[in-house]
Amino acid sequence: MKRLDRIAGMLLGTALIFGIPATTGAHAADLPPLSHSLMKQAPKPAPALKLKDIDGATHDLAKLRGKVVLINFWATWCPPCRREMPSMERLSQALKGEAFAVLAVDVGEDADTIHAFTSQLDTALHFPILLDSTSRAMQAWKVAGLPTTFLVDKQGRIVASAIGGREFDHPDMVKAIRDVMGK
I need a labelling partner for 108 at 20 to 30 A (CA). Which of 71, 72, 87, 134 fits? Predict the structure, then answer.
Protein backbone atom coordinates (compact mmCIF):
# COMPACT_ATOMS: atom_id res chain seq x y z
CA MET A 1 0.00 0.00 0.00
CA LYS A 2 2.89 2.38 0.73
CA ARG A 3 4.06 1.91 -2.85
CA LEU A 4 0.67 2.93 -4.26
CA ASP A 5 0.57 5.93 -1.91
CA ARG A 6 4.03 6.96 -3.16
CA ILE A 7 2.95 6.61 -6.80
CA ALA A 8 -0.28 8.55 -6.17
CA GLY A 9 1.77 11.28 -4.48
CA MET A 10 4.17 11.39 -7.41
CA LEU A 11 1.29 11.70 -9.87
CA LEU A 12 -0.40 14.38 -7.78
CA GLY A 13 2.90 16.26 -7.67
CA THR A 14 3.15 15.98 -11.45
CA ALA A 15 -0.39 17.34 -11.76
CA LEU A 16 0.52 20.31 -9.58
CA ILE A 17 3.70 20.99 -11.59
CA PHE A 18 1.61 21.18 -14.76
CA GLY A 19 -0.83 23.51 -13.01
CA ILE A 20 -3.65 20.99 -12.94
CA PRO A 21 -6.05 21.44 -10.01
CA ALA A 22 -5.93 18.54 -7.56
CA THR A 23 -9.67 18.56 -7.00
CA THR A 24 -12.21 17.00 -9.29
CA GLY A 25 -14.70 19.75 -8.53
CA ALA A 26 -12.99 22.33 -10.77
CA HIS A 27 -15.23 23.73 -13.50
CA ALA A 28 -14.23 23.20 -17.13
CA ALA A 29 -14.08 26.98 -17.60
CA ASP A 30 -11.38 27.14 -14.89
CA LEU A 31 -9.19 24.55 -16.60
CA PRO A 32 -6.86 24.95 -19.58
CA PRO A 33 -8.27 23.76 -22.92
CA LEU A 34 -7.62 20.19 -23.95
CA SER A 35 -4.97 19.83 -26.64
CA HIS A 36 -5.65 18.05 -29.92
CA SER A 37 -2.26 16.73 -30.94
CA LEU A 38 0.15 13.90 -30.31
CA MET A 39 3.92 14.18 -30.60
CA LYS A 40 5.25 11.93 -33.34
CA GLN A 41 8.33 9.91 -32.44
CA ALA A 42 10.64 7.40 -34.03
CA PRO A 43 8.85 4.04 -33.90
CA LYS A 44 9.91 1.82 -31.00
CA PRO A 45 8.46 -1.48 -29.80
CA ALA A 46 5.62 -1.03 -27.34
CA PRO A 47 6.06 -2.70 -23.95
CA ALA A 48 3.83 -5.65 -23.17
CA LEU A 49 0.37 -4.75 -21.92
CA LYS A 50 -1.85 -7.53 -20.62
CA LEU A 51 -4.40 -6.53 -17.99
CA LYS A 52 -7.93 -7.32 -16.84
CA ASP A 53 -10.70 -4.85 -17.47
CA ILE A 54 -13.26 -3.65 -14.93
CA ASP A 55 -15.48 -6.63 -15.78
CA GLY A 56 -12.69 -9.22 -15.33
CA ALA A 57 -11.91 -9.92 -19.02
CA THR A 58 -8.22 -10.01 -19.99
CA HIS A 59 -6.97 -7.75 -22.80
CA ASP A 60 -3.58 -8.25 -24.44
CA LEU A 61 -2.03 -5.59 -26.67
CA ALA A 62 -0.15 -8.33 -28.55
CA LYS A 63 -3.49 -9.69 -29.79
CA LEU A 64 -4.33 -6.32 -31.33
CA ARG A 65 -1.51 -6.47 -33.89
CA GLY A 66 -2.83 -5.27 -37.23
CA LYS A 67 -4.78 -2.46 -35.54
CA VAL A 68 -3.74 1.03 -34.52
CA VAL A 69 -4.25 1.26 -30.76
CA LEU A 70 -4.71 4.37 -28.65
CA ILE A 71 -3.57 3.62 -25.09
CA ASN A 72 -4.46 6.15 -22.41
CA PHE A 73 -3.16 5.97 -18.83
CA TRP A 74 -5.50 7.81 -16.48
CA ALA A 75 -7.21 7.95 -13.07
CA THR A 76 -10.63 9.13 -11.89
CA TRP A 77 -9.10 11.75 -9.55
CA CYS A 78 -7.30 13.47 -12.45
CA PRO A 79 -9.36 16.41 -13.86
CA PRO A 80 -7.99 16.34 -17.44
CA CYS A 81 -8.41 12.55 -17.47
CA ARG A 82 -12.05 12.97 -16.52
CA ARG A 83 -12.58 15.68 -19.13
CA GLU A 84 -11.10 13.71 -22.03
CA MET A 85 -13.07 10.47 -21.53
CA PRO A 86 -16.20 11.53 -23.51
CA SER A 87 -14.06 12.61 -26.49
CA MET A 88 -12.21 9.28 -26.34
CA GLU A 89 -15.57 7.51 -26.61
CA ARG A 90 -16.62 9.71 -29.55
CA LEU A 91 -13.32 8.88 -31.30
CA SER A 92 -13.82 5.17 -30.61
CA GLN A 93 -17.32 5.32 -32.10
CA ALA A 94 -16.20 7.39 -35.10
CA LEU A 95 -13.60 4.74 -36.00
CA LYS A 96 -15.74 1.74 -35.06
CA GLY A 97 -15.40 -1.11 -37.54
CA GLU A 98 -11.95 0.06 -38.66
CA ALA A 99 -8.53 -1.31 -37.71
CA PHE A 100 -8.50 0.77 -34.54
CA ALA A 101 -8.89 0.17 -30.80
CA VAL A 102 -8.87 2.22 -27.60
CA LEU A 103 -7.53 0.90 -24.30
CA ALA A 104 -7.89 3.08 -21.20
CA VAL A 105 -5.55 1.97 -18.41
CA ASP A 106 -6.66 3.16 -14.98
CA VAL A 107 -3.73 3.46 -12.59
CA GLY A 108 -4.09 2.38 -8.96
CA GLU A 109 -7.87 2.28 -8.58
CA ASP A 110 -10.43 -0.49 -8.25
CA ALA A 111 -13.36 -1.39 -10.49
CA ASP A 112 -15.94 0.05 -8.04
CA THR A 113 -14.28 3.48 -8.14
CA ILE A 114 -14.23 3.42 -11.93
CA HIS A 115 -17.84 2.24 -12.18
CA ALA A 116 -18.88 5.11 -9.87
CA PHE A 117 -17.06 7.60 -12.11
CA THR A 118 -18.36 6.24 -15.43
CA SER A 119 -21.94 6.18 -14.12
CA GLN A 120 -21.70 9.98 -13.73
CA LEU A 121 -20.78 10.56 -17.39
CA ASP A 122 -23.37 11.72 -19.91
CA THR A 123 -21.77 9.33 -22.41
CA ALA A 124 -21.47 5.57 -21.82
CA LEU A 125 -17.95 4.27 -22.47
CA HIS A 126 -17.73 1.23 -24.75
CA PHE A 127 -13.95 0.78 -24.91
CA PRO A 128 -12.14 -1.44 -22.39
CA ILE A 129 -11.02 0.15 -19.13
CA LEU A 130 -8.07 -1.87 -17.86
CA LEU A 131 -6.92 -2.07 -14.24
CA ASP A 132 -3.27 -1.37 -13.45
CA SER A 133 -3.74 -1.72 -9.69
CA THR A 134 -0.04 -2.37 -9.04
CA SER A 135 1.18 0.39 -11.41
CA ARG A 136 3.51 -2.11 -13.11
CA ALA A 137 2.18 -1.26 -16.58
CA MET A 138 2.58 2.44 -15.83
CA GLN A 139 6.21 1.83 -14.91
CA ALA A 140 6.89 -0.40 -17.93
CA TRP A 141 5.47 2.28 -20.23
CA LYS A 142 7.47 4.99 -18.38
CA VAL A 143 4.41 7.11 -17.68
CA ALA A 144 5.54 10.36 -16.05
CA GLY A 145 2.14 11.99 -15.45
CA LEU A 146 -1.56 11.51 -15.99
CA PRO A 147 -3.11 11.44 -18.43
CA THR A 148 -0.51 10.01 -20.80
CA THR A 149 -1.47 8.72 -24.22
CA PHE A 150 0.41 6.48 -26.64
CA LEU A 151 -0.44 5.66 -30.23
CA VAL A 152 0.69 2.18 -31.27
CA ASP A 153 0.84 1.29 -34.96
CA LYS A 154 -0.28 -1.94 -36.64
CA GLN A 155 3.19 -3.46 -36.09
CA GLY A 156 3.02 -2.92 -32.32
CA ARG A 157 5.34 0.12 -32.21
CA ILE A 158 4.78 3.37 -30.32
CA VAL A 159 4.71 6.10 -32.99
CA ALA A 160 3.30 9.05 -31.01
CA SER A 161 2.57 10.08 -27.44
CA ALA A 162 1.38 12.94 -25.27
CA ILE A 163 1.17 13.98 -21.64
CA GLY A 164 -1.90 15.96 -20.64
CA GLY A 165 -5.55 16.05 -21.57
CA ARG A 166 -6.59 15.66 -25.20
CA GLU A 167 -9.71 16.29 -27.23
CA PHE A 168 -9.53 12.95 -29.02
CA ASP A 169 -12.31 13.56 -31.52
CA HIS A 170 -10.87 16.86 -32.78
CA PRO A 171 -10.40 16.71 -36.59
CA ASP A 172 -6.60 17.16 -36.26
CA MET A 173 -6.40 14.19 -33.88
CA VAL A 174 -8.62 12.00 -36.07
CA LYS A 175 -6.50 12.88 -39.11
CA ALA A 176 -3.26 12.00 -37.28
CA ILE A 177 -4.70 8.62 -36.26
CA ARG A 178 -6.03 7.94 -39.77
CA ASP A 179 -2.56 8.77 -41.14
CA VAL A 180 -1.08 6.03 -38.93
CA MET A 181 -3.88 3.71 -40.06
CA GLY A 182 -2.83 4.41 -43.67
CA LYS A 183 -6.16 6.04 -44.63
Answer: 87
